[in-house]
Design goal:
408 residues; mainly alpha; Growth Hormone, Chain: A; globular
């Protein structure tokens, strides 16, 4: 094995446990389930698409409230304990979701509660540990880690769709609760962060802490740079649009007279593309100028929007659109931690990632219900897709012009 891949040989358990945690966490299975649960919840309770899509706003509101705090405690105290506690609480909260009685306010409150108790199952936590173990192949390691959400995207329609069809919408939440509970085991045995004094006994073969862990900008220093705000706002636009496209993909296809079963399968195609996008992006950013790699992948949903704007429910059009959206979805979440570490260093990684996370999820919280509102007003998504193309173009331009990363 080449020397620069020795990191994987030594630390693959950390990557595997982190990938599982990402997949079952609030930004993995929970996000992919929203599109699958949209029609069943609408049928069960009579809620509109805009009302159900607004759940993403409450989900991301919890992320925004907790992200700086999670980043702070991750940098200061480590990520292992908070990840384990959050997985257990998330599992219990998902069980509680089955007790909804039809009140949209209770639905929103429950989703918000999920985001609070599951705040330490976001990529911020899982990537923090992985980044401490990898230097030469950090991009690929983060890509493999975050491919966990792509796996969730493949499994969610297969598992949740079948369970919901047979046992009702409650079965979907019970399945996600079981997955979160089972993820505690690999996290307990494998998920460790380099350099934590209370974890040395768990892995006596660990190397000394890298000087890179103390290199980079402080939060105040990063806030004084134009590059940080350019980076944050670009991902706000990109994250919002891609999230809206992913959540509304199934309804857009069924509106075009595609059978629901076939439309749900497009989520699986998108999930497969997420995995490919994350691993491929991680591989390429270790070798080429990261902003250019990002620009290529993050511009792909523009083609997806054009394809979805047609009124022909052809299978090849749906598959192609789902793949382009999935490739970008895979790239964006991979690029967010990678570029944060690359351009601002690891010194304040958790806190800076937390702040960028806020901007990212502001977009994610606004765009999906906006898409739903457009549909409720006009009976189609045409205007939303047009705005999406412009917003994606602006966001891609912001990432492509980040310039050369500093050396820390």
């Amino acid at each position: 094995m080449p020397q620069d891949y020795a990191e994987f040989r030594a630390h693959w358990p950390v990557v595997v446990s982190a990938a599982i945690g990402v997949g079952v966490g609030v930004t993995g299975a929970m996000v992919y389930s929203l599109g699958i649960m949209l029609n069943p919840l609408a049928d069960a309770f009579g809620w509109s698409r805009a009302e159900i899509s607004a759940a993403k706003t409450f989900l991301t509101l919890g992320f925004a409230v907790t992200a700086p705090f999670v980043g702070y405690i991750a940098d200061k105290f480590g990520v292992r304990k908070i990840a384990l506690i959050s997985l257990i609480l998330l599992s219990l909260a998902l069980v509680g979701m089955t007790r909804m009685n039809g009140s949209i306010l209770i639905f929103y409150a429950s989703i918000f509660g999920l985001s609070l108790v599951g705040c330490c199952t976001t990529p911020l936590v899982w990537t923090r540990a992985v980044a401490t173990w990898f230097e030469k192949r950090r991009g690929l390691a983060l890509g493999v880690t975050l491919a966990g959400t792509g796996i969730a995207g493949i499994l969610a329609p297969l598992v949740l769709g079948g369970l919901i069809e047979r046992y009702g919408w409650q079965a979907g939440y019970m399945a996600m609760a079981a997955a979160a509970a089972l993820a505690v085991l690999p996290a307990y045995f494998w998920f460790f962060e380099q350099g934590r004094q209370d974890e040395k006994a768990a892995n006596s073969a660990r190397r000394p802490a890298s000087p890179a862990l103390e290199a980079g900008l402080t939060v105040k220093e990063a806030f004084r740079t134009f590059r940080f705000w350019q980076f944050a706002f670009a991902f706000m636009l990109i994250g919002g649009i891609i999230s809206a496209l992913a959540i509304h993909l199934v309804p857009m296809l069924t509106d075009a007279n595609m059978p629901r079963a076939m439309a749900v399968r497009m989520i699986g195609a998108m999930g497969a593309a997420v995995i490919l996008g994350r691993v491929t992006t991680g591989f390429l950013v270790d070798r080429f100028h990261p902003p250019y790699v990002a620009a290529v992948f993050l511009s792909m949903p523009i083609i997806g929007c054009l394809l979805l704007g047609t009124d022909v429910p052809a299978l090849w059009l749906a598959v192609t659109a789902a793949i382009f959206i999935g490739l970008a979805a895979g790239s964006e979440v991979d690029l967010l931690p990678y570029l944060t570490a690359r351009y601002f260093g690891l010194k304040s990684y958790g806190r800076l990632y937390g702040w960028v996370f806020i901007f990212f999820y502001v977009g994610v919280g606004i765009a999906p219900p906006a898409f739903g509102r457009v549909f409720d007003l006009y009976g189609n998504y045409d205007s939303a897709l047009s705005v999406a193309i412009g917003a994606l173009g602006l966001g891609v331009l912001g990432i492509a012009t980040l310039g050369k990363a500093p050396k820390f």
